[in-house]
Amino acid sequence: MYTSSPFVISALLVFSLPLIYVLAPRILQPRTLPTIPEPDEADDLALFRRATLASVDPAGGAGLRRRPPSPPKIAFMFLTNSDISFAPIWEKFFRGHEQLFNVYVHADPAAELVLPPTRSFKGRFIPSKATQRASPTLISAARRLLAAALLDDPSNAFFALVSQHCVPIHSFRFVYDALLADPGAPAPAGSLHRRHRSFIEIVSDDPGLYTRYIARGDNVMVPEVPFERFRVGSQFFILARRHALLVVRDRRLWKKFRMPCLKKMEDSCYPEEHYFPTLLDMQDPNGCTRYTLTRVNWTESIGGHPHTYTPAEISGDLIVELRRSNSTYSYLFARKFSPDCLDPLLEIADTVIFRD
């Protein structure tokens, strides 16, 4: 009797199938990076619908709900997965301007966040979900912040996304006046009023553009996002209110950008740097400045992270250098700073940072 008989081989195959089914997922590496859980997506969709309905003109118009007579406000939206070490310097930045801003914090629920009991940050946490680098969860977190700010206060005119490693490099009044004084985008047909522009980097000639485009696989972005319309930019931005609403209303492009990247393309997967520039460039290119107002030093980047400033580098000269830009405006914020930069930054806050 031969163990290689067809009957024996067939029997072995039949009995081994359940074992393969159980062990294969543990042995074989997944082809894609983690994606967004369906319950999280359903929660987000409900939130975005509420934000959209709350922003629609009740008279039946297609535009934004008319703002109340109160002055326009800036919504500062902090995206963090650790402590906001620079809360004290932000508190100095905010002081005396309580009627002109709101603060919203999206903290990764997996992080044990300990926030200083500062007035502006207290109670400003929004319902959040877990985030992960190289995944669309960072897009979802930013969209949650936008939706929460849209729902919270109709006076929010600008929506500034910043990180826990970001600090202001001008006074609040300088930042506020710069945004409100912007000449704005051309007025739409039939209107005499120019519209606020969004300050977001939009790049179409990045050397790695195609590699980033195919990070989810060949041809998976078409037809919604052909390669010639794909854009990249910085993760942090300042959006005008109509663009914040445009982002939370979007379903068409989101179904492409929510797709997980291939694991082999992890080094090219930065969805949050792709989705917002592409969406806004496709929907309202003339309404965006195409540059960011957050300064980041990429000359010494490591593993996709920018240069991190240390206490020894903090000086008045550094702040002056960080403000310089090639655009109409100087930079308003800067990153990335190590947490132990707080004390040296506070030492020059009144004499340099907040003296414009």
From TrEMBL:
UniProt entry tagged with the keyword Glycosyltransferase: yes
Q: State the source organism's domain of life.
A: Eukaryota
Family matches, as InterPro entries: BC10-like, Glyco_trans_14
Q: One Pfam family for this entry, by name?
A: Branch
For this UniProt record, the keywords arranged alphabetically read as follows: Glycoprotein, Glycosyltransferase, Membrane, Transferase, Transmembrane, Transmembrane helix
Is Secreted one of the keywords UniProt gives this record?
no
Which residue spans traverse the membrane? 6-24
Q: Membrane topology for this entry? A: Single-pass type II membrane protein
The protein's location, in the record's own words, is:
Membrane
Which GO cellular component does the record give, naming just one? membrane
Task: Name one molecular function that GO assigns to this entry.
Answer: glycosyltransferase activity
PANTHER family per the UniProt record, alphabetical:
CORE-2/I-BRANCHING BETA-1,6-N-ACETYLGLUCOSAMINYLTRANSFERASE FAMILY PROTEIN-RELATED, CORE-2_I-BRANCHING BETA-1,6-N-ACETYLGLUCOSAMINYLTRANSFERASE FAMILY PROTEIN
Query: What name appears for this protein in its UniProt entry?
Result: Glycosyltransferase
